[in-house]
Design goal:
- This is YhcN/YlaJ family sporulation lipoprotein.
- Residues 35-62 have a biased composition (Polar residues).
- It comes from Paenibacillus sp. SYP-B3998.
- Residues 30-62, 110-141 are annotated as: Disordered.
- Helix content is 34%, strand content 12%.
- The chain is an alpha/beta fold and 226 residues long.
- The chain has a domain at 54-114 and 139-205.
- The strands form 2 sheets. Strands 2-3-4-6 form a 4-stranded mixed β-sheet, with helices on both faces.
- Strand 3 (84-91) and strand 4 (95-102) form a beta hairpin.
- The longest helix is centred in the first third of the chain and has 28 residues, at 2-29.
- It starts with a helix and ends in a 7-residue tail after the last helix.
- 28% of the residues are buried.
């Protein structure tokens, strides 16, 4: 009787091993849809001391940066994380500033409902002042329509999601004093325009004053409560 059942049993075991192998390969070579849950307490890697906007716990901060550069390396590293569709990382003499938009490769990245309209486009969505014109700026990475997710305020991103991003950056560039993270659409588009200048081989130093004013507006300078 056992000999008669032997082939189906061995076949089932082989199929199970094959599926496990495929699953392991997916984890190693690409993003696994919904593999990461940033809303789950089981994400032990994010239970350590907070790694982003830490200096604002102690008192007011200043974004009076003296240097500015786009980091292709750090951007690429964050792009590989589940939950991140696109990341643009700017580094200064002290800090890293991350602009990003999210995708569906992880859950628990945001505290709120969707703000991006993915129901289709119509005239005027891209340009309120010219309803008959569907064109948009070539520098805009996200328009809010048929795009990946953004969030108006950085506090709308979950702690565990931001913690994972900040820990990744600090592990790769430990000399940085702090990390600031936002998925604000306007901030993302502006940092994309900066990145385009860098790709062209242009220095970002002429944009430093505008950058400092922008990050001060996005992240604020006042002390925040833990």
């Amino acid at each position: 009787m056992l000999r008669k059942l032997g082939f189906p049993i061995y076949g089932l075991i082989f199929l199970m091993l094959l599926l496990i192998g495929c699953s392991e390969q997916g984890r190693q070579y690409g993003k696994s849809p919904d593999h990461t849950n940033f809303g789950s307490p089981s994400e032990n890697s994010t239970d350590s001391e907070r790694a982003y906007q830490t200096q604002q716990f102690s008192g007011p901060v200043s974004h009076n940066n003296k240097q500015l550069a786009y980091s292709q390396f750090l951007s690429n590293q964050l792009n590989a994380l589940n939950g991140v569709n696109t990341a643009i990382v700017m580094t200064t003499d002290q800090y890293a500033y991350v602009a990003l938009m999210m995708d569906s490769t992880a859950i628990g990245t945001k505290n709120t409902t969707r703000e991006t309209n993915n129901q289709g486009t119509s005239k005027g969505f891209y340009n309120d002042h010219a309803p008959s014109n569907d064109s948009m700026s070539s520098q805009d990475l996200n328009t809010g329509y048929n795009n990946y997710e953004t969030a108006v305020h950085h506090d709308l991103l979950t702690h565990r999601f931001k913690q994972t991003i900040a820990e990744k950056i600090r592990s790769l560039q430990p000399n940085l004093l702090d990390v600031y993270i936002s998925a604000n659409r306007d901030f993302l588009n502006k940092m994309n325009s900066y990145a385009q200048q860098s790709w062209k081989g242009n220095s970002l130093m002429p944009l430093l004053t505008d950058f400092n004013q922008t990050v001060e507006r996005v992240f604020g300078t006042a002390q925040v409560l833990p």
